[in-house]
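for ur thesis appendix - Pimeloyl-ACP methyl ester carboxylesterase. copy paste whatever u need, i formatted it the way the template wanted (i think)
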Amino acid sequence: MTVNAFRISVSDDVLADLRARLERTLFTTASDSAFWAAGVDPGYLRELVAYWADGFDWREAEASLNAFPHYVAEVAGRQVHFVHLRGSRTEGGPAPLPLVLTHGWPSSFVEMLRVAPLLADPDDPADAFDVVIPSLPGFLFSELPREPFTRRGVAEIWHSLMTEALGYERFGAFGGDIGGGVTQWLGALYPGEVAGVHVTSAVLTTDFSQSPATPEEQAYLDGLAAYDLRDQGYSEIMWTRPDTIAAALMDSPAGLVAWIIDKYRDWSDCDGDLETRWDKDTILTVATLYWATGTIGSSFRQYYDYPHNKPVPPITVPSAITLSNEPAYANLPRSLPERVCTDLRHWSTPGRGGHFMSHEEPEQVARELRTFFGPLRRQV
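the 3d part is after this line
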């Protein structure tokens, strides 16, 4: 299994074509007078597109991304891209604990870059991690699997990446959204190698056939269903007609960035002000990566293939939840994840940081990870 160094390099021709498309963008008018009430505000989108076309410096963003050590590995015959940040250590001190961080949708490895240095180079080297940040299959520089995209399938790929390609015998796992599901599967499938799992969004795959939901649990599930009715328009089309929406987004960079920031604003802990969590340069870094790699359509595969996912079996390794402060997880009772996690050791509700917590609150996430994994460390 080969691992090769990798650098991000977008051609001048791709950037010139992108700029020309941005300059020809046609904008809609708002369907509702209330700001963002019917989706992305056309005025804000016009401002963002103008900056993307004439102001945003991709070469500066590219250089910043390449300051991190990037690699690609062939796993199960497919290319997997990842950032690998080695942890600091003192002579004679313990080796850093390897930790794989998994992002979700519509995200990327960029989500984890603010927290990664805090984990790899903490004040106390005894708290250091070797940080591995893969790009999910079909996202940016990672190829889709040949079989359906499932969280279990990604966990199997990550296990091969960590143990075979990188040679780690024991490691921890962290993630939210899709990454939370992958993280849970890592804990369920590989208790011998996985030291512990830590998620920020409790991915609920509980089977209630043997033990019906309690009144508190049912109240939460009913509230979640009501929220989904208002939020799930994006997912319905990606579950059922991903190629239709992908055709539009692959041809329109303005449409692409609108599709992304609609969820960045809704799911971040930003009180409706997107740029308190996502400044324009970061938004456009992510959007340019999706555009240059042509992977917005393949990023939908995990939605289209979702019926292939099965409930997560019991997770017996030590588990932790630092609960995202977003509507989907408001009032989540601890008893629900305890149905899946038989050793839930850490439960935290900080009330800050939404769906993209590692980007929104990196210091908080670093503290939570050090607190949970601290007692689980041993010479590795």
